[in-house]
């Protein structure tokens, strides 16, 4: 008999489980279900009174095997993908439970229902591509709050001062060059000149930007005109401006401050081009509001203060912070690769779009573009599954974890069930067509549908 204190603790424990949005299953060492919360009831449509006290294997063979494997090994598993039904997608974390003496007493499985996430990514993936300037789509077509705020500020800046200098900040591949070209296309009529500040030595970069008088060159009769003057009504895009030498930074800051370049003969040439720059490190946050006491502190951006504060900074978030955009971005680059390579546009299974959205994409847009090219090159007519995407993007599945422990008969039944599900999906639920596709009679198909609980 429980005492009053134990009863209170149990009540808190059950309330805590029911308050959780994830489905929670607790089993003892033998695999008997001890707890089954409300989220689990909703996810699997099994009332707790029907499953608590029963062996988990009677309801979920794969999940039962995984729980037993976790208890046998004493090692937890995290982020395991599972599709318990054709219309359900979950990620599972399973951990063994030990008592104070270290004795194994059971396991807990926590399952996050990602069905809505998969559905939203499917909708995002299959929506119509934006019209107009498609090359800007991976940046402009966003649901990310931070990026939307940055683009709203950019729109306001363009309306107020279309010649303002802009500093684009973000990781490699987030789209700084794409956005620079978009800004140029919106505001300038002249050429777009891109200069990588890493590629030129200090002296050459200075000459490339500001030019040099003729007497500095042997056997030269004309002066070398710099890109800031040649670009005229266009844009000069200074990539990796943080690699620019300090003396050149000082000259550029002076040119931006004065709105022009003063040459060695005293002639002043107005600055008619727009300057956009990019760096791969984070900017000084709230630089304008920094107190005087902190102005001499080392800046996270390796630019001189005089140059840094001449720019309007804009930060582009990495793709791992734009989960809601990834499916649409994948769609864009997949279609772009299909058109460029002259190959059919692949279709992706729902779980694949979810896996792509869950991946961290360390290479950002560049990595997405190359991955989608790979899928176009290697993909066939059938919808692509986990085996078609790069290994680093494939989540571990319950099938991966439990295949070795499945009996031959169980594997055969599961394979047959999957084949029938696939045939029914291919034929839109037409049983006569599905039976022909499977090479069995319609009566045999009806029997198997009833056997596997798939009559609907």
From TrEMBL:
Domain Sigma-54 factor interaction residue range list: 140-377
Keywords for this protein: ATP-binding, Nucleotide-binding, Transcription, Transcription regulation
SUPFAM superfamilies in the record: Homeodomain-like, P-loop containing nucleoside triphosphate hydrolases, PYP-like sensor domain (PAS domain)
PAS domain sequence ranges: 9-61
Superkingdom as given in the UniProt entry: Bacteria
Gene3D superfamilies, per the entry: 1.10.8.60, Homeodomain-like, P-loop containing nucleotide triphosphate hydrolases, PAS domain
InterPro entries xref list: AAA+_ATPase, AAA_lid_NorR, Homeodomain-like_sf, HTH_Fis, P-loop_NTPase, PAS, PAS-like_dom_sf, PAS_4
Record's protein name: PAS domain S-box-containing protein
Organism: Alicyclobacillus cycloheptanicus
């Amino acid at each position: 008999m429980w005492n009053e204190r134990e009863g209170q603790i149990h009540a808190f424990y059950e309330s805590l489980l029911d308050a959780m949005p994830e489905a929670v299953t607790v089993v003892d060492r033998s695999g008997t279900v001890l707890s089954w919360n409300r989220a689990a009831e909703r996810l699997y449509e099994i009332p707790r009174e029907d499953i608590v006290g029963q062996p988990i294997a009677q309801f979920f063979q794969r999940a039962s095997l995984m729980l037993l494997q976790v208890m046998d090994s004493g090692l937890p598993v995290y982020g395991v993908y599972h599709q318990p039904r054709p219309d359900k997608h979950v990620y599972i974390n399973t951990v063994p439970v030990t008592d104070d003496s270290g004795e194994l007493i059971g396991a807990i499985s926590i399952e996050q229902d990602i069905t809505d996430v998969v559905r939203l990514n499917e909708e995002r993936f299959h929506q119509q591509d934006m019209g107009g300037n498609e090359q800007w789509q991976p940046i402009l077509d966003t649901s990310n709050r931070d990026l939307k705020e940055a683009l709203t500020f950019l729109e306001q800046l363009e309306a107020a001062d279309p010649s303002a200098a802009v500093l684009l900040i973000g990781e490699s591949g987030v789209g700084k060059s794409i956005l620079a070209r978009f800004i140029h296309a919106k505001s300038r009529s002249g050429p777009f000149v891109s200069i990588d500040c890493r590629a030129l030595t200090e002296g050459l970069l200075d000459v490339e930007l500001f030019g040099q008088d003729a007497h500095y060159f042997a056997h030269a009769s004309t002066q070398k005109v710099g890109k800031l003057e040649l670009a005229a009504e266009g844009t000069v895009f200074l990539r990796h401006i943080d690699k620019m030498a300090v003396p050149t930074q000082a000259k550029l800051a002076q040119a931006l401050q004065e709105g022009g370049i003063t040459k060695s003969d005293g002639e002043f040439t107005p600055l008619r081009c727009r300057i956009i720059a990019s760096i791969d490190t984070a900017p000084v946050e709230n630089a304008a509001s920094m107190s005087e006491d902190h102005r001499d502190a080392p800046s996270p951006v390796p630019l001189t203060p005089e140059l840094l504060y001449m720019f309007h900074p804009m930060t582009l978030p990495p793709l791992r912070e734009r989960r809601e955009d990834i499916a649409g971005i994948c769609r864009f680059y997949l279609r772009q690769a299909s058109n460029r390579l002259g190959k059919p546009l692949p279709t992706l299974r729902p779980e694949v779009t979810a896996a792509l959205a869950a991946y961290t994409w360390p290479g950002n847009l560049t990595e997405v573009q190359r991955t989608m090219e790979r899928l176009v090159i290697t993909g066939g007519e059938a919808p692509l599954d986990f085996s078609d995407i790069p290994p680093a993007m494939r989540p571990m599945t319950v099938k991966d974890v439990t295949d070795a422990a499945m009996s031959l008969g169980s594997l055969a039944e599961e394979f047959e069930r999957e084949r029938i599900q696939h045939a029914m999906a291919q034929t839109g639920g037409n049983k006569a067509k599905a039976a022909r596709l499977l090479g069995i009679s319609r009566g045999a198909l009806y029997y198997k549908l009833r056997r596997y609980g798939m009559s609907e």
